Automatic annotation (TrEMBL):
InterPro entries: CLDN1, PMP22/EMP/MP20/Claudin. This is Claudin domain-containing protein 1. It comes from Chlamydotis macqueenii. Pfam families: Claudin_2 (PF13903). Keywords: Membrane, Transmembrane, Transmembrane helix.
Length: 253
């Protein structure tokens, strides 16, 4: 029985190690996706001359207090959860090769911007509130922090489990990782829905192409990793508890 118990312990320990590695990777991916600006990318197909001529006007609109979603869908740039960036010529007055004289400028979203109402007609404050886009935007700001918080709390419970030399708290760690995965999945869904609704109201110009960036992909990868870690934590804790109960009942008998 001691060999069998050791075999079971090794099996559970392996599951926990794999779960911890998956949890660490998903946390890194999630933190990287939140902190980078490449959630959605816009690429203009216009000739460099046109980009150069419009660069100064676009930049003035971009940095103004009245800048809206119309500004950054008309030129090269990226949109993240915290910042929006555009790429314009360094010297918009004269034509120069874009590969050597282009610069990227970013503007951060303030906390009030994150909770600002979205309008039925983007840029028109008199068109009324678009509740769908408003709440989708707010959720995509809040959900990643809830996800990271749940995973950090789960890690603390896991450390307590190691200190107590017990697998029972691993169930709570697994449940928290599962909830974190739901939050991450909700974040991805909210972001995609928000982008689709925006482009229905503001169709992209013919010379602009849009696509999801690598920051968005990191969040997409993070969700299944969280679910897999949750499954391993819960499986190891429940199976170990069941085996221990059966072994204890056999010894008593």
């Amino acid at each position: 029985y001691s060999c069998k118990g050791a075999m079971m312990d090794n099996r559970f320990a392996t599951a926990l190690v794999i779960a911890c590695v998956l949890s660490l990777i998903s946390t890194i991916y999630m933190a990287a996706s939140i902190g980078t600006d490449f959630w959605y990318e816009y690429h203009t197909l216009s000739p460099a001359e046109n980009v150069s001529e419009a660069g100064r006007t676009i930049w003035e609109e971009f940095v103004s207090e009245e800048a809206d979603e119309k500004t950054y869908i008309r030129c090269n740039g990226t949109v993240g959860l915290w910042r929006r960036c555009i790429t314009i010529p360094k010297n918009p007055h004269w034509y120069s090769p874009p590969e050597t004289d282009m610069t990227t400028n970013c503007i951060s979203f303030s906390l009030s911007d994150q909770f600002m109402e979205k309008y039925i007609e983007p840029g028109n404050h008199n068109s009324g509130t678009d509740f769908n886009r408003t709440y989708l935007w707010r959720l995509q700001f809040l959900l990643p922090f809830v996800s990271l918080g749940l995973m950090c709390f789960g890690a603390l419970i896991g450390l307590c489990a190691c200190a107590c030399r017990s697998l029972y708290p691993a169930i709570a760690t697994g449940v928290l990782h599962f909830l974190a995965g739901l939050c991450t999945l909700g974040l991805v869904g909210c972001y995609v829905a928000g982008i689709e609704l925006l482009h229905k109201k503001l169709p992209l110009p013919d010379d602009v192409r849009g696509e999801f960036g690598w920051s968005f992909c990191l969040a997409c990868v993070s969700a299944p990793l969280q679910f897999m870690a949750a499954a391993l934590f819960i499986w190891a804790a429940r199976t170990n508890r069941k085996e221990f109960t059966l072994l204890k009942a056999y010894r008593v008998a």
